[in-house]
What does this fold into?
Amino acid sequence: MSDNHQVEVLLALFLDDIASARHHEGLRSTVANLTLVVGAAAGAFVGFDAKISMADLPAAALLIIVGVFGAMLSHKHYYLFHFHRERARPLREKLDQLTGLGLTEMKVKSDANTAARYPHMKEISAGFLWTIMPLSVSILGIAIAVAAVCA
It folds into this structure.
């Protein structure tokens, strides 16, 4: 197989994995947003009568279920994003090897520049943040359920 044909095949595979990774990032974002919207709507329903009572337990249960489900889906899409990104990595490295463009060197330099500019950001996991955000909806549901039972 000629080098040009290898480059074409590798580039097509690379672009497919990168597109899949972006797709899962978009889905993760949509899941997180929908979880927050449903949580806000259920929270508004609870607050409509300006008191928390046993009648608010169904809304609290909805908040708990939606928050847990949203966190699980968000985490799954975060995993799939990394799955496709990691599949693309050796393809990019092989493309770099075949073309001699210095792609890996450019990436390493860019990554180092970003890490130097934002050193504290490496300590914060985006996956943790994208999982904890929908879980906060569940925590709100638990708080409402406890307040309703204690009222």
User: Anything to note?
Assistant: The chain is about 85% helix and 0% strand. The first helix runs from residue 3 to 47. Helices lie at 3-47, 57-99, 103-117, 126-150. The CA atoms of residues 37 and 43 lie 10 Å apart.
